[in-house]
Design goal:
- With 404 residues, this protein is of the alpha/beta class.
- The protein is 37% helix and 13% strand.
- Helix 3 (77-87) crosses helix 7 (218-227).
- The longest helix is centred in the C-terminal third of the chain and has 19 residues, at 273-291.
- The mean pLDDT is 96.
- It binds pyridoxal-5'-phosphate.
- Pyridoxal-5'-phosphate binds at residues 76-78, 102-103, 105-106, 148, 174, 176-177, 198, 200, 211.
Length: 404
């Protein structure tokens, strides 16, 4: 049960008091070890800086990690979503269902292929895409659903897979938060036809920038490998081996290649994924224990039977009991040296979406109401228990000061 700490009576740093921490604790941070540094150095000294043997080695390791037939490495998580939707050959006028509460890239990817994102509301307890609203937003033009494993918790694929199949639409998983999670023995990366991951430093494993799409589908994997390289049907290494210069371009693509140097880093990071996820889960359990029954914050609910990779530790503020709004709490915690974040402003409320698609406040009321209360607390594998105690002390200090 929650007990306010002594810090609760001290002057807030935002009002000139002493901060809980002198140096800002970030909400996320990569962990790069000696093995990773050595792997990058080795790649730099090798014959290949970009598309070479390390790309395939990384792809094989990634595919094995999630249990998928294919892993296609690309230059970012955004590129992963783009080539996934492009491989489905969506056409202008097609609609793609996207949850409102996600990073903008989930919806931007639909626009890149000329399709129209249609925003779906989320479940108020878990903030995962609400299958009932998916059913409501389906139209004759709907071609795909992008399901986002928000914060690292798995969506209800046991409902979404049959729902998409019976509606004749494709299921793409934006698993950028959920590498290392599983639903029973089925790992994230195998739950949808196409599964997109990010290798950004804030995510579970990093290649500085990078992304991966996993699939069991041979033809889609081949198509995505072509698309990441302008649409060219062979890569340079294949032509070198064949001693040939000729290639064809039968569809349009982009330069979304991930370099050998990045794949060296990514592969060394991947070996540490189990430790990273275990530490994140440990910290999350400690947050949950210390925040149980808290007067001012409520951690997101766990979905029955859901898996979790703990990318984010998200809480909702009990604004009814506070004199200030979320942004004031955000600023006060930052002043205390706690790098809280907000994930996310609902995508349909952005100016571009309002102007281009005519989206409006009220389109996804659950996501909008949640947004006003959301706060992501620092969570990353290298965070110590003492760092976490600072977060909890600062939360108590700030929220007690702002209580009604
Ligand atoms: C990080 C992220 C992306 C994009 O990944 P990048 O590698 O930054 O391009 C897409 N969707 C979600 C949900 C993400 O968190």
């Amino acid at each position: 049960m929650h007990e306010p700490t002594q810090a609760a009576t001290a002057a807030l740093a935002i009002d000139g008091g002493a901060p809980v921490r002198a140096k800002l604790l970030p909400y996320a941070r990569q962990s790069i070890g000696e093995t990773e540094v050595q792997a990058v150095v080795d790649a730099l000294a090798s014959d290949w800086l970009t598309t070479g043997p390390r790309v395939q080695e990384f792809e094989r390791a990634f595919a094995a990690t999630v249990g998928a037939r294919h892993a296609v490495a690309v230059s970012s998580g955004t590129a992963a979503l783009h080539v996934a939707l492009a491989a489905l050959e969506l056409a202008p006028g097609d609609e793609v269902l996207v949850p409102a509460l996600t990073f903008a890239a989930s919806a931007n990817a639909a626009l890149y292929v000329g399709a129209k994102p249609v925003f779906v509301d989320v479940d108020p307890r878990t903030l995962l895409v609400d299958p009932r609203d998916v059913a409501r937003k389906l139209s004759a033009r709907t071609r795909a659903l992008v399901a986002v494993d928000y914060a690292g918790q798995t969506c209800d694929y046991d409902v979404l897979v049959p729902l998409c199949a019976s509606s004749g639409i494709e299921l793409v998983s934006d698993a950028c938060h959920a590498l290392g999670a599983a639903l029973g023995h089925r790992k994230v990366g195998t739950l949808a036809k196409l599964n997109a991951f990010s290798l950004h430093p804030a995510k579970h494993v990093t290649s500085a920038e990078g992304g991966v799409v996993t699939t069991h589908d041979d033809a889609l994997a081949r198509r995505m490998r072509t698309m990441r390289n302008h649409g060219i049907d062979t890569d340079l290494a294949q032509r070198e081996r064949a001693g040939a210069h000729r290639y064809d371009l039968a569809r349009i693509g982009w330069n979304y290649r991930l370099t050998d140097v990045q794949c060296a880093l990514g592969r060394a990071q991947l070996a540490r994924l189990p430790d990273f996820v275990a530490r994140r889960a440990e910290l999350a359990a400690r947050y949950a224990e210390r925040l149980a029954g808290h007067a001012f914050v409520r951690p997101l609910a766990r979905r029955d039977g859901g898996g979790h990779a703990w990318h984010l530790y998200v809480v909702e503020l009990e604004l009814e009991r506070l004199r200030v709004d979320r942004d004031e709490v955000f600023r006060a915690l930052r002043a205390e040296g706690i790098g809280v974040q907000v994930h996310y402003r609902p995508v349909h409320t952005f100016t571009y979406y309002r102007e281009q698609l005519g989206t409006r406040d009220g389109d996804c009321p659950v996501a909008e109401a949640a947004y006003a209360r959301l706060l992501s607390l620092p969570l990353f594998p290298a965070m110590s228990d003492a760092d976490q105690d600072d977060v909890l002390a600062a939360l108590d200090k700030v929220l007690e000061a702002y209580r009604k």
